[in-house]
Amino acid sequence: MSIKTDVLSGRTFLTSLIADKPIFADEVDKFYYLKLLKRMLKFQEYKGVAFALLNSELHLILYAKADDGSPDEWILKVFQEDYVPWYEHRHAVHETVEASVNTVGLCEEQALIDACIRIHLLPKRAGYVNWAADYWWSSALAYLGHVNWDFIEPELLLSLFDTDIVKARKSLTKAAKKMYGAEFGDSFGYNR
After folding, report:
1. Does the model's pTM come out above 0.90?
2. Which tens digits make up the pLDDT trace of 84-99?
3. What kind and span of H or E run contains 19?
4. Cα dist. 161→87, 94, 141, 173 in Å?
């Protein structure tokens, strides 16, 4: 089975965790949560395709290596049982943090590509940065080849465009500009 067929076989998901308050307050918080997520991905037999971690949100595209179903339960478990107690201790706060998780299956090539581009544009749209590639806490830099988030495998999505990584990156940029036009501009950073 080719990577393309495998990725689109019904085992790719867009999962969003939304907290009711800013709980990823700084770089230490974000780094620690991603460390927990990386560990859980390893044990849950998932591969990360793309992510963006904002102050109160995580958006993650996952590919299930096995037919394990939706990742909602373990994403919420890592957040509530591992991260929130650590956060409360570190910041000396004892507030109830509510979070919801929503997962959507990505079975079509265009849906997967669109979800990846939208995830990478979230920090720009939220006003955190001018360029998506300037936001450290997303996989945009991994898609550019500038950073290696070892739990994210951009090749899974880029292989849908081309086997040559440089050509695949250019094709992804072209697709993003086609979908988002002027709003997209060079905000992904591929043309800087």
Report:
1. no
2. 999 999 998 887 888 9
3. strand 12-19
4. 40, 47, 18, 11
Report the alpha-carbon angle 186-190-192, nearest 5.
70
Tens digit of each residue's pLDDT (9 = 90 or more) over 123-180: 988 999 887 888 899 998 888 888 888 899 998 889 888 999 889 988 888 888 887 7
Alpha helices in 9-154 (DSSP H): 27-44, 72-77, 84-91, 109-125, 140-144
Q: Would you say 15 and 64 are in contact if contact means Cβ atoms under 8 Å apart?
A: no
Query: Residue 72 corresponds to which tokens in the numbers above?
Result: 């909602």
CATH of 3-184, one of 3.40.50.300, 3.30.460.80, 3.30.70.1290, 3.40.1180.10: 3.30.70.1290
Alpha carbons 32 and 78: distance in angstroms, whole number:
11
Q: List the chain domain ranges.
A: 3-184
Q: What is the dihedral of CA 14, 15, 20, 23, to 10 degrees?
A: -110
Nearest to 7 by CA among 115, 101, 102: 115
